[in-house]
Amino acid sequence: MTGLLPYGRQSVTDDDVAAVVAALRSDWLTTGPQVTAFEADLAGWTGGAGVAAVSNGTAALHVAYAAAGVGPGDEVIVPPMTFVATASSAVALGAQVVFADVEPETFTLDPAAVSAATTGRTRVVAAVDYAGHPADYDALRAAGGDTLLLADAAHSIGARYRGRPVGSLADLTTFSFFPTKNLTTAEGGAVAALDGELLTRARRFRNIGLVRERDEQRWPDEGGWHQEVHEFGLNYRLPDVLCALGRSQLRRLDDFLARRARLVARYDAALADLPGVLTPGRRAWAEPAWHLYPIRVLDGRRREVYDRMRAAGIGVQVNYIPAHWHPAFADLGYRRGSCPVAEAFYAEQLSLPLFPDLSDADQDRVVDALAAALRGAPARPAAA
Ligand SMILES: *Cc1c(COP(=O)(O)O)cnc(C)c1O
């Protein structure tokens, strides 16, 4: 590979291309049989929880919060160590986001912080399976009481918690199929719901809020064409063409995850004795679906190491700036220092390249470039 080695990228085969072409040539471009089939295939990964495909992972969060009834006056508890959409999609519904800190080993939502943050107005507790490592769902369930639990599983489709699959752990689970994630539909996402009523609400919000079931309509005798809106929604549908890609990708998800796990084991071994960095932690009860390989660069050297590795052609990334540091949250009064575990982690965090088609040789190049950056040696440019 020439140029910058990316931190993540899709793996697309001729089979994927053929699946998309076949869908393009069919009678359906948008809502059609591939959508239903993709949702059924996804339910094979969620332990049977019903699934609604949507247009991206941010839409999935918006749909899930809407299905949960989130609105003005409600509070939604979110960890700051996530992509901003976990929090901003709740703000879009008029809710107040309450940031609760993360655990020091996995950087997933800390159940003790959730207990402290829960009030009578808490509508949803939203956990994030950071890097593909599941949050501690049983403890979060206990900490949140009767509050709905949401899993932002944008990183973690295919992971297991105490033997149970992601998708079956929270009342609502959201996925993203962006190209860097564990499988892709270009843009795409999904919502899984344990409860049939939540799933129906999610499906309706995804489709403008339209109610088509005659026995649920207020004006059922209007005529055969009739559909009506009871609660406002948006158009967040995922087209048939992209669902065909998703189905084809899903057939290789086991292989993708196995390759990611092998690369993670190689990184763990190569970096174990490298001074100045810490490798990612993992709890005994977790079977992660590694999306990121987040190391910690010690001694205040993260920025220097990032710059040196970028100069050496290694596309390292930082995931993530604490969500409450975004100016839009700062302008609402959220303050730095409120989530010290997440903020200290951010200061050290660096994601090394991790994706199924990353070769062992390119991974070795990443390890060499990291060691060189830590030695402070001049950066060696990438082979052209
Ligand atoms: C990628 C991601 C999202 C948003 O998904 P998009 O498909 O990019 O909209 C939400 N949450 C997390 C944790 C993510 O990594």
TrEMBL record:
GO biological process: polysaccharide biosynthetic process
Keywords: Pyridoxal phosphate
Catalytic residues of the enzyme: K181 (proton acceptor)
Cofactors required: pyridoxal 5'-phosphate
Family the entry assigns: Belongs to the DegT/DnrJ/EryC1 family.
Listed GO MF terms: pyridoxal phosphate binding; transaminase activity
Protein's name according to its UniProt entry: Perosamine synthetase
InterPro entries according to UniProt: DegT/StrS_aminotransferase (IPR000653), PyrdxlP-dep_Trfase (IPR015424), PyrdxlP-dep_Trfase_major (IPR015421), PyrdxlP-dep_Trfase_small (IPR015422)
Pfam families: DegT_DnrJ_EryC1 (PF01041)
PANTHER family: DTDP-4-AMINO-4,6-DIDEOXYGALACTOSE TRANSAMINASE (PTHR30244:SF34), TRANSAMINASE (PTHR30244)
PTM sites of type N6-(pyridoxal phosphate)lysine: K181
